[in-house]
Amino acid sequence: MTTPKETADVVLIGGGIMSATLGALLNDLQPEWDIRVYEKLDYVARESSHPWNNAGTGHAALCELNYSPQDANGNVDITKAVNINEQFHQSRQFWSFLVKEGIITDPTSFINPVPHMSYARGAQGRDYIRNRYETMVRNPLFADMEYSDDPAQHAEWLPLMFEKRGPGQVNGVSRVERGTDVDFGSLTRQLLGHVEDRGVQIRTAHTVTDLDRAADGWTVSVRDDRSSESFEVDAKFVFIGAGGGALHLLQKSGIAEGRGYGGFPVSGIFLRTSAPELVERHYAKVYGQAATGAPPMSVPHLDTRVIDGNRYLLFGPYAGFSPKFLKKGRFTDLPFSVRGNNLPVMLNVAKDNFDLVTYLMGQLAETKGGRFKTLEEFIPEVNPEQWDFITAGQRVQVMKRDPKKGGVLGFGTEVVSAADGSLAALLGASPGASTVTSIMLNLLERCFPQQYAGWEPRLKDMVPSLGRKLHEDPALLQELSEYTSGTLQIG
């Protein structure tokens, strides 16, 4: 029996924020293109983009301490923080464009103002927060950052954390009032709903099972999980934005650029509450310092979340381990990802990250009481009956070749693309969703070099700072900050 075959210009694999953003960009730039989205679950934004599968921080490096490391001499390197903040500004600009165009009618449905704060205990922690503040505040991107080591000021900023602390404690706290909380699930659904209204096909419960080179692009094998029927789509361009599932599909493509990549899955557990007496006394995202050996995604933080108009507090994450690459994945995901070309990389990563293994083993052995003890480092008085445990989405960290070490573990996001630009895959995790616009703009330039120059004027309508560095142009930074704050109602 002959397998039914369809044709398309673009196939986007995965129904999350990555595919939604790329689909919206391409649909605007080339409305005549036939674009298809295939999502294996029965609804979009059910994995990493779901609001309870991520912290919704709107990563702008305002509070995340792992983006501003300190060396032995007390010098703080903010290079990564500057880069991430620039990228988040691009996301804000694109989202403002969506509101201005009427694509999103209510920005509060996905983004809300929540201060971003950093916190460290003891004299050493206080000194780091102060050093970090003094370094960052000199950069225009962070000029409005505040710092305090005054207990009275801490209690005013964060009453739930500091009002009932005993005397004599030493803490350092920095604050940026213009932080945000982002519901990436809501944003994804609205973007995909918009492009579907404009003719983009979105098929849920459809699993991409294979990718093969074709004369003009790729043959994508798809299974309709509702009917168990399979078909093929010949596509000129394929984007693999399937979260943890991207690695397997990248391997199936067989492109040389994907050789040597492996994945290390880390799961997360959070504590959540909607108790009014707690929620009303804490309105901020407060990030602390990571434990020794902990991956950056495991930095403890106490967050205000705004989901469907309701406020919650979220604390965690408590790291765990599962061989699944997706929350709805399989226990065989990790072992089936091992190949001859990535096994040496994975072994070298294991050898050089024994402290991470030790940390994860300790987290797996942690009792429920022990987890509440960790929360007590942020909140002095904890009633366990007011909190419930939730399991967050799986994060698959990139393992890749390194000329010096043989293999390294990466904690960011990375686009892997074929030399001819016909296929691209997004691997990795944080800061991911927050920098999605920048990631997709770079992908467009890399994978569509013939069209990009013609697209650039329209892209600058969407993202006015495209091609410029805001920290080098304070006047433009001020102008665009005011524009996005007003448009998104976060000022």
Structural write-up:
- The protein is of the alpha+beta class and 491 residues long.
- 33% of the residues lie in helices and 25% in strands.
- Strands 4, 5, 6, 12, 13, 14, 15, 16, 17 and 18 form a ten-stranded mixed beta sheet that branches.
- Strand 1, helix 1 and strand 2 (35-39) form a beta-alpha-beta unit.
- Helix 1 (17-29) runs parallel beside helix 6 (184-197), helix 1 (17-29) crosses helix 13 (436-447) and helix 2 crosses helix 13 (436-447).
- The longest helix is centred in the N-terminal third of the chain and has 22 residues, at 79-100.
- The chain is globular.
- The protein starts with a strand and ends with a helix.
- The mean pLDDT is 92.
Keywords:
491 residues, alpha+beta, ten-stranded mixed β-sheet, 33% helix
Could you write a compact summary of the structure shown?
With 491 residues, this protein is α+β, with helices and mostly antiparallel strands. The protein has helices at 17-29, 79-100, 122-136, 151-157, 159-162, 184-197, 246-253, 276-279, 333-336, 343-352, 354-365, 368-376, 436-447, 449-462, 474-488; strands spanning 5-13, 35-39, 111-113, 116-121, 146-148, 171-176, 180-182, 201-204, 206-214, 217-224, 229-240, 262-273, 285-287, 301-307, 310-320, 388-391, 395-400, 408-410, 413-417, 423-428.
